[in-house]
Write a structure and sequence with these properties.
The chain is of the alpha+beta class and 291 residues long. It has three domains: 1-107, no CATH class; 113-227, TATA-Binding Protein; 232-275. 37% of the residues lie in helices and 25% in strands. The chain has twelve helices and ten strands. It has helices at 16-20, 67-72, 84-99, 125-133, 165-171, 176-181, 194-200, 206-209, 212-223, 237-251, 254-260, 263-275; strands spanning 2-9, 25-31, 38-46, 50-55, 60-66, 109-120, 141-145, 150-154, 159-164, 185-191. The radius of gyration is 27 Å and the shape is elongated. The relative contact order is 0.11.
Length: 291
């Protein structure tokens, strides 16, 4: 359901000496252009919560973490709505371990929530990516890369990406178990715009947004935009030309056809018809969430 999220809470008071004494903590002091006051940004790379940032001026604590990686150690495994309470508990426990404070779940807001799903499409991952690369989604640019392994639809505020999950896992040199688990997976990841987030929760409350209702809303919005080409639309002109010749060949004698076509064209058509095969129709099933 969800992968990487960025949670924020404020006002949270953290002692600078405690922060600087922590392993993997970096600090930068800068002049806030709006207030004209010096403030310090602390960045901590944590083994469980990945990335933690604290701004002492606004007393804002931010964390960036992959929910499935925190719970399962990888992001191939999909989280479910039943995992969300465990996620909040894990975050609360880790924050308490690090800073000796307790932040209620309801205090967290969201600035980023990546929504994801694994579509098991077997050997058709490449076919889906190629089909999707020809799509145009509203107000988004289409870009394909990694040799038909990835297609991205994006603008300044949001991003939708489909890709071959097994190829990504192999590039990261993951375990054989994860490589096998990701076999045949077409991965969809959605980074919603700020407007989409606020439509669902005006205060961007994390408890309200990390919910199946928001997941269903964003998935439906994306999947309903995808068009699946009909068989006729994928037949090119050359194939239709040969089909027309074959129909005429079944209706008229050779002497008649030689009057219609030049000698070279007739010979060329006859030769190509022998090699002609019926083009594959659209065999790709519409992508759907099966829960």
């Amino acid at each position: 359901m969800f992968d990487t999220v960025v949670l924020k809470a404020r006002p949270i008071h953290l002692d600078s000496e405690v922060l600087l004494s922590m392993k993997n903590c970096k600090s930068v002091t800068f002049l806030n252009k709006e207030t004209g006051v010096l403030q310090t940004r602390y960045e901590i790379y944590d083994e469980k919560l990945s990335y933690i940032k604290y701004l002492d001026g606004s007393q804002t604590l931010s964390i960036q973490v992959s929910i499935p990686k925190l719970l399962y150690g990888n992001n191939v495994t999909l989280t479910t709505e039943h995992d969300i309470p465990s996620f909040f508990e894990s975050v609360q426990q880790r924050i308490h371990q690090l800073f000796s404070i307790v932040i209620p779940h309801s205090e967290w807001s969201i600035s980023r929530a990546d929504i994801c799903w694994n579509f098991q499409v077997g050997k058709n991952v490449g076919e889906y990516v190629r089909m999707l690369s020809k799509q145009k989604l509203a107000f988004k640019n289409t870009r394909s890369y990694n040799q038909d392994q990835t297609v991205e639809f994006s603008n300044k505020s949001s991003r939708i990406i489909f890709y071959d999950k097994q190829q990504q896992v192999q590039k990261e040199k993951a375990s054989p178990e994860l490589v096998e688990q990701s076999k045949g997976v077409l991965r969809l990841e959605i980074k919603p715009s700020n407007n989409d987030i606020k439509k669902f929760s005006p205060t961007k409350n994390a408890v309200e947004l990390l919910d199946k209702a928001f997941f269903d809303y964003m998935m439906a919005k994306v999947l309903n935009e995808i068009e699946y080409p009909s068989t006729v639309s994928i037949m090119d002109l050359s194939w239709l030309t040969l089909l027309g010749f074959q129909v005429m060949n079944s209706m008229f004698e050779e002497s008649v056809l030689r009057q219609i076509y030049t000698s070279s064209t007739y010979a060329n058509r006859k030769n190509l018809v022998k090699k002609m095969t019926i083009p594959k129709g659209n065999c790709l099933e519409p992508l759907a969430i099966n829960q």
